[in-house]
Each structure stands twice: as C-alpha cells, then as structure tokens.
Amino acid sequence: MEKLVTSNDQLVYNAFSFAVAAMAISFVYYLVSRSRVSPAYRSAVTMSAMICGIAAYHYWRMFSNFSAGSWNEGYRYADWLLTVPLLVAELVVVAGVSKEVAKKITPRLVIAALLMIPTGYPGEVAEHGST
Hints:
flat
C-alpha cells in the first residue's frame, strides 16, 4: 500500500474501511438472523444479506483501488446494477402486498430501477456548468 498524501486521503481511506466493515458484518448478521424472522419476511432478510454482501465486495474493491492510488468508477455502477433492483424487490416484500400485486409491480419497479442507473451516469460525467 502506498502512503496516503493528504489528510483528506486519510479521511476517505478510513471511511471506506469503516463502510466495508459495516457492510460485511451486516451480511453476517442478516444470515445468522434469518431463521429468527417470521417466514413471511425471510426472503427480505435474505435479500438484505445479498445486498450487504454485494456492496461489501464492491466497496472493498474501491477501497483497494483507492489505497493503491487509482479509482475505478465501474465498481460503483456494478454495485448499483445489482443492489438497487434487490432493494426494490425487498421493498415489495416488506410492504406486505398480495402475491398477485407483487408479481405485477415488481418487474416494473426493477426495470425502472435498472433504467435509473444508466440515465444518471451522463449527469455524473458532465463537466460543471454544461447541459
């Protein structure tokens, strides 16, 4: 690992480290707690574990790249492409809607979530003040 240059670098390094640890332990907690939850919500807890596990992996990759002095925007977008649809599906489960309603709205919400991510990318990479 290269030596970090500024206090801002150290702050980002510490934030990434904390975030990875929090997501990893959340992944373990959700897996261990799954059997203690009402059967109606076990799939939501499983999705929470998946979301935390996926996020922990991608943020670990970002942390490793940052530590080495580089940055790869792709990890964040890969994370969102996987976790945002899972979050939307989890929301439908915990909302307690009927299975018929869930089957109808979940695909629509997942498609909307997937479209949201690439449509936000141009806004991120646009230069300040440009349209």
